[in-house]
Design brief:
By secondary structure, this protein is an alpha+beta fold. 37% of the residues lie in helices and 21% in strands. It contains 4 helices and 12 strands; from the N terminus they run H-E-E-E-E-E-E-H-H-E-E-E-E-E-E-H.
Protein backbone atom coordinates (compact mmCIF):
# COMPACT_ATOMS: atom_id res chain seq x y z
CA UNK A 1 0.00 0.00 0.00
CA UNK A 2 1.34 3.42 -0.92
CA UNK A 3 1.83 5.93 1.87
CA UNK A 4 -0.36 9.00 1.96
CA UNK A 5 1.64 12.25 2.00
CA UNK A 6 1.09 14.48 4.99
CA UNK A 7 -1.09 17.52 4.41
CA UNK A 8 0.90 20.64 3.64
CA UNK A 9 -0.33 22.31 6.80
CA UNK A 10 1.43 19.68 8.90
CA UNK A 11 4.79 20.11 7.21
CA UNK A 12 7.61 21.60 9.23
CA UNK A 13 9.54 24.49 7.74
CA UNK A 14 12.74 24.87 9.81
CA UNK A 15 13.85 28.31 10.91
CA UNK A 16 17.55 27.51 11.11
CA UNK A 17 20.12 25.03 9.89
CA UNK A 18 22.23 25.54 12.99
CA UNK A 19 24.99 27.29 11.06
CA UNK A 20 26.43 30.66 12.13
CA UNK A 21 25.32 33.85 10.39
CA UNK A 22 28.79 34.43 8.94
CA UNK A 23 32.11 32.65 8.76
CA UNK A 24 34.05 35.60 10.18
CA UNK A 25 33.35 38.74 12.16
CA UNK A 26 33.79 40.70 8.94
CA UNK A 27 31.20 38.64 7.05
CA UNK A 28 28.68 39.05 9.86
CA UNK A 29 29.34 42.79 10.18
CA UNK A 30 28.99 43.31 6.44
CA UNK A 31 25.60 41.60 6.44
CA UNK A 32 24.27 43.65 9.35
CA UNK A 33 25.70 46.89 7.93
CA UNK A 34 24.11 46.30 4.52
CA UNK A 35 20.76 45.39 6.06
CA UNK A 36 20.85 48.54 8.20
CA UNK A 37 21.76 50.75 5.23
CA UNK A 38 19.00 49.29 3.05
CA UNK A 39 16.39 49.65 5.80
CA UNK A 40 17.49 53.25 6.28
CA UNK A 41 17.27 53.97 2.54
CA UNK A 42 13.92 52.24 2.08
CA UNK A 43 12.30 53.53 5.29
CA UNK A 44 9.55 55.26 3.32
CA UNK A 45 9.04 52.43 0.82
CA UNK A 46 6.95 49.28 1.19
CA UNK A 47 9.80 46.80 1.24
CA UNK A 48 11.09 43.96 3.36
CA UNK A 49 14.84 43.97 4.01
CA UNK A 50 16.42 40.98 5.72
CA UNK A 51 19.27 38.53 5.56
CA UNK A 52 20.31 35.01 6.46
CA UNK A 53 16.63 34.14 6.73
CA UNK A 54 15.11 31.01 5.21
CA UNK A 55 13.08 31.87 2.10
CA UNK A 56 10.76 28.98 1.19
CA UNK A 57 9.55 29.16 -2.39
CA UNK A 58 7.48 25.98 -2.92
CA UNK A 59 4.52 25.26 -0.70
CA UNK A 60 4.64 21.71 0.60
CA UNK A 61 8.35 21.32 -0.10
CA UNK A 62 10.55 22.33 2.88
CA UNK A 63 13.62 21.46 0.83
CA UNK A 64 12.87 24.27 -1.60
CA UNK A 65 14.61 26.90 0.48
CA UNK A 66 17.42 29.42 0.20
CA UNK A 67 18.88 31.87 2.72
CA UNK A 68 20.43 34.89 0.97
CA UNK A 69 22.93 36.89 3.00
CA UNK A 70 21.04 40.13 2.23
CA UNK A 71 17.84 40.57 0.24
CA UNK A 72 15.11 43.09 -0.54
CA UNK A 73 11.51 42.16 -1.33
CA UNK A 74 9.53 45.07 -2.74
CA UNK A 75 5.89 45.40 -1.76
CA UNK A 76 6.25 43.23 1.35
CA UNK A 77 5.73 44.63 4.83
CA UNK A 78 8.82 45.36 6.89
CA UNK A 79 8.19 43.30 10.01
CA UNK A 80 9.90 40.53 11.89
CA UNK A 81 9.45 37.06 10.45
CA UNK A 82 10.69 33.66 11.55
CA UNK A 83 10.86 32.49 7.92
CA UNK A 84 9.64 33.90 4.62
CA UNK A 85 7.16 31.77 2.67
CA UNK A 86 6.62 33.09 -0.82
CA UNK A 87 3.11 31.63 -1.20
CA UNK A 88 2.00 33.36 2.02
CA UNK A 89 3.29 36.73 0.77
CA UNK A 90 1.27 37.03 -2.44
CA UNK A 91 4.05 35.37 -4.40
CA UNK A 92 6.55 38.16 -3.79
CA UNK A 93 10.18 37.09 -4.17
CA UNK A 94 13.41 39.00 -3.57
CA UNK A 95 14.04 41.68 -6.15
CA UNK A 96 17.66 42.14 -5.11
CA UNK A 97 20.06 39.70 -3.46
CA UNK A 98 23.57 40.34 -2.15
CA UNK A 99 25.81 37.42 -1.24
CA UNK A 100 28.97 37.92 0.84
CA UNK A 101 31.23 35.26 -0.62
CA UNK A 102 33.38 33.13 1.65
CA UNK A 103 35.41 29.93 1.37
CA UNK A 104 32.37 27.86 2.31
CA UNK A 105 29.93 29.59 -0.04
CA UNK A 106 32.02 30.67 -3.02
CA UNK A 107 31.19 27.66 -5.22
CA UNK A 108 27.44 27.88 -4.55
CA UNK A 109 27.45 31.67 -4.97
CA UNK A 110 29.05 31.33 -8.42
CA UNK A 111 27.66 28.08 -9.78
CA UNK A 112 24.39 27.14 -8.06
CA UNK A 113 22.60 30.20 -6.76
CA UNK A 114 22.54 32.18 -10.02
CA UNK A 115 20.36 29.55 -11.68
CA UNK A 116 18.09 29.34 -8.65
CA UNK A 117 17.74 33.09 -8.28
CA UNK A 118 17.08 33.47 -12.00
CA UNK A 119 14.35 30.83 -11.78
CA UNK A 120 12.79 32.65 -8.84
CA UNK A 121 12.85 35.95 -10.72
CA UNK A 122 15.41 37.84 -8.62
CA UNK A 123 16.01 40.88 -10.80
CA UNK A 124 19.53 41.73 -9.66
CA UNK A 125 22.16 39.54 -8.01
CA UNK A 126 25.38 40.88 -6.46
CA UNK A 127 28.41 39.08 -5.07
CA UNK A 128 31.11 40.58 -2.87
CA UNK A 129 34.31 38.94 -1.71
CA UNK A 130 35.65 41.14 1.12
CA UNK A 131 39.09 39.52 1.17
CA UNK A 132 39.40 39.13 -2.61
CA UNK A 133 40.27 35.45 -2.30
CA UNK A 134 37.54 33.87 -4.44
CA UNK A 135 36.19 36.44 -6.91
CA UNK A 136 37.93 38.56 -9.53
CA UNK A 137 36.81 41.27 -9.52
CA UNK A 138 35.74 40.92 -5.92
CA UNK A 139 32.51 42.90 -6.49
CA UNK A 140 30.24 41.60 -9.25
CA UNK A 141 26.68 42.28 -10.30
CA UNK A 142 24.20 40.56 -12.60
CA UNK A 143 20.83 41.64 -13.99
CA UNK A 144 18.09 39.29 -15.14
CA UNK A 145 17.43 39.42 -18.88
CA UNK A 146 15.35 36.86 -20.78
CA UNK A 147 15.46 34.42 -17.89
CA UNK A 148 19.24 34.51 -17.42
CA UNK A 149 21.75 36.80 -15.75
CA UNK A 150 23.88 39.22 -17.72
CA UNK A 151 26.84 41.00 -16.09
CA UNK A 152 26.32 44.60 -15.04
CA UNK A 153 29.24 46.43 -16.63
CA UNK A 154 28.66 49.95 -15.32
CA UNK A 155 31.12 51.58 -12.95
CA UNK A 156 30.34 52.18 -10.20
CA UNK A 157 28.23 49.04 -10.13
CA UNK A 158 24.60 50.11 -10.21
CA UNK A 159 21.49 48.52 -8.75
CA UNK A 160 18.81 49.83 -11.07
CA UNK A 161 15.94 48.31 -9.08
CA UNK A 162 16.73 50.35 -5.97
CA UNK A 163 18.56 53.31 -7.47
CA UNK A 164 21.79 52.54 -5.65
CA UNK A 165 25.47 52.25 -6.45
CA UNK A 166 27.62 49.54 -4.87
CA UNK A 167 31.29 50.27 -4.20
CA UNK A 168 34.04 48.16 -2.66
CA UNK A 169 35.89 50.28 -0.11
CA UNK A 170 38.75 48.42 1.53
CA UNK A 171 37.07 45.28 2.90
CA UNK A 172 33.64 46.88 3.07
CA UNK A 173 30.78 47.06 0.60
CA UNK A 174 29.19 50.51 0.74
CA UNK A 175 25.94 51.67 -0.84
CA UNK A 176 25.39 55.11 -2.40
CA UNK A 177 22.25 56.92 -3.48
CA UNK A 178 22.70 57.00 -7.25
CA UNK A 179 20.62 60.18 -7.58
CA UNK A 180 22.42 62.27 -4.94
CA UNK A 181 25.79 60.58 -4.50
CA UNK A 182 25.12 60.31 -0.76
CA UNK A 183 26.71 57.34 0.96
CA UNK A 184 24.18 55.37 2.99
CA UNK A 185 25.09 55.17 6.67
CA UNK A 186 25.79 52.03 8.60
CA UNK A 187 24.63 51.64 12.19
CA UNK A 188 27.82 52.94 13.84
CA UNK A 189 27.85 56.01 11.61
CA UNK A 190 24.16 56.65 12.26
CA UNK A 191 24.79 56.56 16.02
CA UNK A 192 27.72 58.96 15.69
CA UNK A 193 25.73 61.26 13.42
CA UNK A 194 22.81 61.25 15.85
CA UNK A 195 25.12 62.02 18.77
CA UNK A 196 26.78 64.81 16.80
CA UNK A 197 23.37 66.26 15.91
CA UNK A 198 22.28 66.07 19.55
CA UNK A 199 25.51 67.77 20.68
CA UNK A 200 25.09 70.51 18.06
CA UNK A 201 21.48 71.01 19.12
CA UNK A 202 22.53 71.21 22.77
CA UNK A 203 25.23 73.76 21.93
CA UNK A 204 22.71 75.79 19.93
CA UNK A 205 20.29 75.72 22.88
CA UNK A 206 23.05 76.92 25.23
CA UNK A 207 23.96 79.72 22.83
CA UNK A 208 20.31 80.72 22.52
CA UNK A 209 19.91 80.73 26.29
CA UNK A 210 23.04 82.85 26.72
CA UNK A 211 21.86 85.27 24.03
CA UNK A 212 18.41 85.47 25.64
CA UNK A 213 19.89 86.14 29.08
CA UNK A 214 22.19 88.82 27.64
CA UNK A 215 19.27 90.47 25.83
CA UNK A 216 17.06 90.45 28.93
CA UNK A 217 19.90 91.88 31.01
CA UNK A 218 20.45 94.63 28.44
CA UNK A 219 16.73 95.37 28.37
CA UNK A 220 16.66 95.50 32.16
CA UNK A 221 19.60 97.91 32.23
CA UNK A 222 17.98 100.06 29.56
CA UNK A 223 14.70 100.05 31.49
CA UNK A 224 16.49 100.96 34.71
CA UNK A 225 18.36 103.79 33.00
CA UNK A 226 15.12 105.02 31.45
CA UNK A 227 13.40 104.91 34.82
CA UNK A 228 16.24 106.84 36.41
CA UNK A 229 16.12 109.44 33.63
CA UNK A 230 12.38 109.81 34.03
CA UNK A 231 12.75 110.17 37.78
CA UNK A 232 15.46 112.77 37.32
CA UNK A 233 13.35 114.71 34.87
CA UNK A 234 10.42 114.56 37.25
CA UNK A 235 12.59 115.83 40.10
CA UNK A 236 13.89 118.71 37.97
CA UNK A 237 10.36 119.63 37.02
CA UNK A 238 9.28 119.52 40.68
CA UNK A 239 12.15 121.77 41.75
CA UNK A 240 11.42 124.25 38.99
CA UNK A 241 7.81 124.35 39.99
CA UNK A 242 8.79 124.90 43.62
CA UNK A 243 11.19 127.72 42.68
CA UNK A 244 8.52 129.28 40.52
CA UNK A 245 6.10 129.43 43.46
CA UNK A 246 8.74 131.07 45.68
CA UNK A 247 9.53 133.70 43.08
CA UNK A 248 5.89 134.50 42.78
Amino acid sequence: MSSIPAPARNLHYPESDGKPIGETDLHRDLMTDLIFALKWFLANVQAYVAGNLFVYFEEGNPRAVVAPDVFVILGAEQRRRRTYKVWAEDGRVPAVVIEITSKKTSAADRDIKPALYARLGVQEYFLFDPYGDYLAPRLQGYRLANGAYAPIDTFPLRCAVLGLELRAEDQALRLYNAATGERLPISDEEVLARRAAEAARHEAEIRLLAETEARLAAEARAAEQSARASAAEAEVARLRALLGRKDG
